[in-house]
Design a protein that fits this description.
- With about 300 residues, the chain is an alpha/beta fold.
- The protein has one domain (about 5-95, about 105-295).
- The chain contains 13 helices and 8 strands.
- It has helices at about 5-15, 20-25, 60-65, 80-90, 105-120, 130-145, 155-165, 175-185, 190-200, 205-215, 220-235, 235-260, 280-285; strands at about 30-35, 40-45, 50, 70-75, 150, 170-175, 265-270, 290-295.
- The strands form 2 sheets. The protein has a 6-stranded mixed β-sheet with strand order 6-4-7-2-1-8, sandwiched between helices. Strands 3-5 form a two-stranded antiparallel ribbon.
- A hairpin with a 3-residue loop joins β1 (about 30-35) and β2.
- α1 crosses α10, α4 (about 80-90) packs parallel to α8 (about 175-185) and α6 (about 130-145) packs parallel to α9 (about 190-200).
- The two termini are about 30 Å apart.
């Protein structure tokens, strides 16, 4: 698996069959529950981009949400946060003076970028003002959205809307600055690899998201772990450490404090954060908690 694919998977689950599959087939996404004497915590791995109108949970998920008092998501989801995300992404993703995107790339890379941009409708030179990671995410997301996937249909957003409509207490783990910082702080060579692989793989993005969407819909943890976790950990350990391990470890500090209290919580974060040897499920078990998959 290439770096772009690993980062795309992270974005889809950190970062997603056509719409007909998602709308006509019953889904059974993976839901876990952690329990001790006086606390219950549901762990639900989400996808941040879904086909328009696609289902976001089954009866087990809705029942767990109804039971829960607090709902945790990666970010606070408000119109103000959305506006701040757009503002900061443009600010933090801006190329330094005198170092436009083309200066990071070879002549062949720039030729391939120009050809790809023309095919997917990006005006010539429109990506020049951006750092490689920002341009790479743009190249990745545009074909996915053109294929019918919509961030507004993401599972996290639907869960947030449920919480708001049902008077739940909404909690979050990270700020916009922290999330964007994971990309900003990628080493320069990793950013170059990211944009090069985005150029190579952008038009295959919808196919990858199709694979991940089907696995998520079916609760196929083995496939999700193989595609999202295993290759990234083996081939790009620094990126894996930053996007998964460090964040999971920070979240576990918060969640174990929650379990020390009482009540029922629902945690909805990218599915890649639940699975694998560094995921939240494994970390809870390593700490002696009882964790079961809700069937």
């Amino acid at each position: 698996m290439m770096l772009k694919r690993g980062l795309l998977a992270a974005a889809a689950f950190v970062a997603l069959s056509g719409s007909a599959f998602a709308e006509t087939q019953a889904i059974d996404p993976a839901l876990f529950v952690v329990r001790d004497a006086d606390s219950t915590m549901y762990l639900y791995g989400t996808v941040h981009v879904r086909p328009t109108g696609a289902a976001w949970g089954d009866d087990d998920v809705r029942e767990a949400l109804a039971e829960s008092e607090e709902i945790w998501t990666e970010l606070l989801m408000t119109p103000e946060t959305e506006a701040e995300t757009q503002r900061l992404a443009l600010q933090m993703g801006a190329a330094p003076a005198g170092q436009p995107l083309s200066s990071w790339l070879t002549a062949d890379d720039n030729a391939r970028l120009a050809a790809l941009s023309a095919r997917i409708g990006i005006p010539a030179g429109a990506l020049e003002p951006y750092r490689p990671w920002m341009a790479a995410l743009t190249l990745t997301l545009i074909p996915i959205m053109q294929a019918g996937f919509d961030p507004a249909s993401g599972v996290d957003r639907q869960i947030d809307a449920y919480g708001d409509a049902n008077g739940k207490t909404m909690r979050f783990f990270e700020t916009v600055e922290q999330q964007l910082g994971f990309f900003v702080n990628l080493p320069e060579e990793a950013q170059r690899q990211f944009i090069r692989e985005a150029i190579t793989e952008a038009e295959r993005g919808p196919g990858l998201i199709t694979e991940l969407t089907r696995a998520w819909d079916q609760g196929d943890i083995a496939t999700l772990e193989r595609v999202v976790i295993d290759d990234s950990r083996a081939q790009y350990p620094d990126v894996y450490q930053a996007l998964f391990v460090d964040r999971n470890n920070a979240w576990m500090e918060v969640l174990t404090r929650e379990m020390a209290g009482s009540g029922v919580d629902f945690v909805a974060v990218g599915a890649g954060h639940l699975i694998g040897e560094d995921g939240l499920v494994a970390q809870f078990r390593a700490r002696g908690f009882t964790v079961e998959r809700v069937e």
